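**Folding the chain**
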Amino acid sequence: MPISQSLINEFIKIAGRENILTEEADLQSYSYDAATADLNPVIPALVAAPATKEQLGLCVKLAYENGRPITVRGSGTNLSGASIPEPGDGVVIVTNRLNRILEINETDMYAVVEPGVITAQFATAAAGRGLFYPPDPGSQSVSTLGGNVALNAGGLRGLKYGVTKDYIMGMEIFDYRGELVKTGSRTVKYVTGYNMAALMSASEGTLGVFAEIIIKLVPPPKASKAMLVVFDDINKASEAVAGIIAARIVPCTLEFLDKNTVKYIEAFTRAGLPVEAEALLLIEVDGGHVQLVEEDAEQVAQVCRKCGCANIRVASNAEEKNKIWEARRNALPALAQARPTIILEDATVPRSKIPEMVAAVNSITKKRNLEVGTFGHAGDGNLHPSILCDRRNKEEFARVEEAVDEIFDVALKLQGTLSGEHGIGQAKAKWMEKETNRATIEFSQNLRRALDPKMLFNSGKKFV
C-alpha cells in the first residue's frame, strides 16, 4: 500500500523533513542488511530517523496506528535478515541519531545509553573511566548497542565473560501505543515486576522498541597473555579445544581458524599468519594476577602439546597481541572477497562436540563439492562455517542450500542450536520448529500477540 502524503507530513512534523526519507534512491540503503547474500532486499515505504526519545515514541505510535509494519534498524550489520523491512508498506525507524552515552557511573559500575551508540565507541569510553565492557562482536566498530541487545550479540570474549544479555540491567521500551515502559534498575539486585529486560534481549525487534539501556560494567583484567597455536591436523586442533575446556581452564578467548580461513585472512591482511597450517587456535587468558595468568597459559599450552600442536607462538607485547586479534576480526571480510557470495552460518554445539561438528562440516561440503572456510568462537561451541559460492549459479547454490540444511541437522543432532549469536530473523525462521516444537512456536506467537496485537513489530521475523 503506497504511503499517503498526509501520513508523510505527520512523520515530518515529528522528526523534521531532513530526517524522513521517501525517495526510492534513498530508501534502497535501508532495504537490506548483512544477510542479503541469501535474502532479497525489500525497499520500505518510509524511513524515519528520530533524534530524541520523544520523537522515537511518536514515530512508533504513528506507524502502529496507521497499520504500518515497523522495522527498527541500527547499522544493519546483523547476519539473519532481522532488519530487512516488510514488503510494500513497511516503515523503518533508524536509531543511529539516538547515540548519546547518558551516564557512566564509575562508583556503581554501570552506564546508561541510547540505542544508537556504537559498541566499540562505548567500550572505549568505559575503558577511559577505568571500566570494562566485555561483549565484542566482530561488527563492533559499526554495530549499535540497541542492535546488540536485539540480537543478543556475542563476540570473541563470550567464553569467559558472557554475551550482551549478561550485561543488561534494565531498559526503557516503547510499546505499540508509543507508551514508555520501564524495566530493570541501576541496582545489582532487582525483582520488581517481570524480568522484561531479559525477554527483550534477542527479541529481534518483535516486542517493542528500545529507548534507553542500562548496562553493567566490570573491572578490567590486570594481566593477559595471548598465543597463536599451529596445528598440522584440523582434528588435533578441534580436540585441543575440547581438551582445554575439559581441563577446567576458561580462557578469555579461544578462537578456531581452519586452513582456508587462514589463507584468505593472510592474503587480505598480511598479518604474518602461517598459511601452511591446517588449523590455528588463537587463545588469550587473562585475570587479576600475573602469576595466575602465567599458570593458566602454561596449562593451555600443555593441553595443546598433548593434542599434537606443531608450534606455539606467544605474543610478547600488546602490539603483537592486537595484531593477532585484528587478523581474527578480519575473517569475515577476508572470506567475503573470495567469491561473489558468502553464506555465513552460525551452528553452535556443546563445546565437547566441536571435533564432531568440524568433521561434519568438512564432510558435508566436500560431498557437495563446495568451498568452505570455518572459523569461530570454538571455546563456547560457536562455529561459523562460511560457504563461498556464487548465488547466480543456480546449480551451485542448490548444493549450498542442501549443505546448510544438513549442517543444521547435524548441529541439532549434537544437541546444539541453530544460532549462537547471529539470531533467527528471516534467514532461519523456517527451521525454528525443527529445534523446538509446535507448542513452543504457538506459545511464542501468543506472547508476541499480547505485546503486539497487530503483529506489526518486525513482521515475518523469528516466530512466523
Q: What stands out?
A: DSSP finds 16 helices and 16 strands in the chain. The radius of gyration is 22 Å. The longest helix spans residues 394-413.
